[in-house]
Amino acid sequence: MAGAGKTPELTHFRDGLPRMVDVSGKASTLRTATAEGWVRLPPEARAALEAGTNPKGDPLTVARLAGLAGSKRTADLVLLCHPIPVTGADVQVTLEEEGVHVVATVRTTAPTGVEMEALTAVTVASLNVYDMLKAASKAIEVTGIRLLAKTGGKSGDYRAPGV
Amino acid sequence: MAGAGKTPELTHFRDGLPRMVDVSGKASTLRTATAEGWVRLPPEARAALEAGTNPKGDPLTVARLAGLAGSKRTADLVLLCHPIPVTGADVQVTLEEEGVHVVATVRTTAPTGVEMEALTAVTVASLNVYDMLKAASKAIEVTGIRLLAKTGGKSGDYRAPGV
Amino acid sequence: MAGAGKTPELTHFRDGLPRMVDVSGKASTLRTATAEGWVRLPPEARAALEAGTNPKGDPLTVARLAGLAGSKRTADLVLLCHPIPVTGADVQVTLEEEGVHVVATVRTTAPTGVEMEALTAVTVASLNVYDMLKAASKAIEVTGIRLLAKTGGKSGDYRAPGV
Amino acid sequence: MAGAGKTPELTHFRDGLPRMVDVSGKASTLRTATAEGWVRLPPEARAALEAGTNPKGDPLTVARLAGLAGSKRTADLVLLCHPIPVTGADVQVTLEEEGVHVVATVRTTAPTGVEMEALTAVTVASLNVYDMLKAASKAIEVTGIRLLAKTGGKSGDYRAPGV
Amino acid sequence: MAGAGKTPELTHFRDGLPRMVDVSGKASTLRTATAEGWVRLPPEARAALEAGTNPKGDPLTVARLAGLAGSKRTADLVLLCHPIPVTGADVQVTLEEEGVHVVATVRTTAPTGVEMEALTAVTVASLNVYDMLKAASKAIEVTGIRLLAKTGGKSGDYRAPGV
Amino acid sequence: MAGAGKTPELTHFRDGLPRMVDVSGKASTLRTATAEGWVRLPPEARAALEAGTNPKGDPLTVARLAGLAGSKRTADLVLLCHPIPVTGADVQVTLEEEGVHVVATVRTTAPTGVEMEALTAVTVASLNVYDMLKAASKAIEVTGIRLLAKTGGKSGDYRAPGV
């Protein structure tokens, strides 16, 4: 199913890698990150969502809560990610013309950023939308997962082009 | 950042939902699912990957293992998903022209399918590619996460169009 | 705060205990369990719930989903409990005259029962109701957690008196 | 089993809820919380506990350790709870005239309180008492789970009436 | 601290590895595994254990329960391990002349064995003995972790030499 | 398999134990810990490792990542351990004359040390080496797990004899 994969030579990597980057010396400061993603719905899945007759319940509510809970599991899933004490999280899951839109904002006071926590929240919320609607269609697609903005940290603030 | 979200009336849903669908009466049979996804790399991220000088280690190896481990966390992340005893998993993470390609196949003998396990493996692997390369670029995008094929179960086999 | 606790002599216990009971020889059969519990709400907490103005969101929806997810964490919490592949779960959280009523039914096909899974779902749902409303009152009480009914297994069916 | 549940209109809730409350701006200060609960034992369960012949081992010891471990799982179970670095925990499980009494005290230095951690410790300990004795009786009941006292935080100290 | 490490050429490995071995086609049969390990105690640690005055509590009881609970976390820790529904577990932790002896037996009915579950139980129990006594000595050593015996599965029964 | 175990009288322990030691009053300071362990390989296991033909993949790479991930699970496994926000981790897994050598260094800024996190990383990495090679030999042994050095904290720095 894949083309002829070109895997870079692992021996290029420095001895002793991979490792969890040392952030012991960095100050704990306020950091935020916002990420988004889309769940593209074929017509049958969209109809099931709009009709409100989905046999497992409301996909948007489940996804919102799953995304909030998922942000707390980031360090379990991302192998080299530091465990971060999330101090606030907000996940919006709305039905738009183009599909289900997921936007997550995560906040912390920590020595490292929360981009991965926001992206994990978006991803987990999207997987839950998929799970809730997969009986209606097998052609659902999760797409466009990206960082919209971040603040705090030595690399400074960031805003995605056009945001 | 979102448009005017249109949330369907929750009151449409039947009383007592959401719930975890009852599969107690279904037979445990062999089931497989294959899913894919893409991590789009801006030039700096691609250069860091190809140069093999990434300060955290090799993204493809980390992603492959994280995806395998992630498939076992599906029921923790997808709130209404049944816990499934995965009996085999295979995650390929390769560098292609269009970006990093993730393909995951999961197998089980269970009363319900493993689509969510395959999709979770792809998603978690993709998040790990992102994490490994995020120091090189903040414009990485995870996209095209979809089911390629499934076998087993009463809904029969499925193959995505063109696969 | 406690009275004079009377702890039984530990040395009465047989050598080698505690242990996880061996159920290897038991057949995997259909088993169900239903449990209930109550969250007693002081007037301010009840008012916050009924007004729908709770700053964290709707307690009943959150509790229902948390209970469903919680049933899958039973073996993590109950140290000597066997891990069980839950095949169905249903958690109802309703506001009644006497408080918030939680009723959970869990199903499995396994060599041992799911009483603890149903009780864990009730308990976790109740803790989430508490958490959602604790800003309104510190005098909320979780109470009356008990098994209502079970079916399957060699100990036979059970129905609580008056149920 | 339940009466005619009266669920408040979800549409009362503000857009975008539920969410994890933002405590980023709050100072990390010393906070403690003490909670209690009771496990009511029918005569056969009490006899099994007092005789020390329970086939799975000593319920009080298992419950005490499970409660301590459970306090660390709070953010996994309570969907909108912040992850908190618990800095001390103490769980007492004693046999009293009225049943098994569980009292848990949890401490932290954090921007938010540990009421939920203390209540989770009590609840998990109680579930473990239940599990250890359920072979002796199916009519065990967990009851009276409430906050006894808390210190620290902007909402000030609290002590339950009569404590 | 290490000598000149000799890492084998990763490129020797077949494309697409690592992977979780496919056991979908294997029958679910009864399997058991017994493993052991030792915790060597310097005199101060042994004295603290024998005096029963350890400030955190009894190391042997805590270790026994932690080992039982740990056997259920195997698939979380061992990345390519299949999740197994453990149907029985027994962990003995005793003080001997040579140190603390940990022996764990795990049983399942599954398509693959439980050697890793028994070894994980031993390892986790040993880490808990260490943690309970580390205030008394920093020179505790965990050693001699090995498989004593296994039964079931196509590779047949095994018994360590001299056991 | 065990000799006549001599379990110390539990009644020696002070009332209310075990407990998670209160470190609320201790300052958060930089702390590091380094631990090591060995996996002894019988000839067939060593040959499989050196030939690079192991059917599950490369044991050293898997072990390194599993150890890094494992360090984040310490508080889940060690019942009375405080949850610690690890700020850096480094796990080396190399093939030496005497076997596979695992060395883990963990860093944090916290009120308590990370000895258990470093030891858990070593242990989990070792279990993964075992799992990857267990098809080649059932006589693999994990041994010599000990603390090499620690810095920070009121008990001062430590270096194992001869390190």
UniProtKB/TrEMBL annotation, chains A, B, C, D, E, F:
The active site is at 131. HAMAP family: MoaC_B (MF_01224_B). It comes from the Bacteria. Coiled coil: none annotated. This is Cyclic pyranopterin monophosphate synthase. Catalyzes the conversion of (8S)-3',8-cyclo-7,8-dihydroguanosine 5'-triphosphate to cyclic pyranopterin monophosphate (cPMP). PANTHER family: CYCLIC PYRANOPTERIN MONOPHOSPHATE SYNTHASE (PTHR22960:SF29), MOLYBDOPTERIN COFACTOR SYNTHESIS PROTEIN A (PTHR22960). Residues 20-153 form the Molybdopterin cofactor biosynthesis C (MoaC) domain. Its EC number is 4.6.1.17. Keywords: Lyase, Molybdenum cofactor biosynthesis. Pathway: Cofactor biosynthesis; molybdopterin biosynthesis. InterPro entries: MoaC (IPR023045), MoaC_bact/euk (IPR047594), MoaC_sf (IPR036522), MoCo_biosynth_MoaA/MoaC (IPR050105), Mopterin_CF_biosynth-C_dom (IPR002820). It catalyses: (8S)-3',8-cyclo-7,8-dihydroguanosine 5'-triphosphate = cyclic pyranopterin phosphate + diphosphate. Belongs to the MoaC family. Substrate binds at residues 80-82, 116-117. Homohexamer; trimer of dimers.
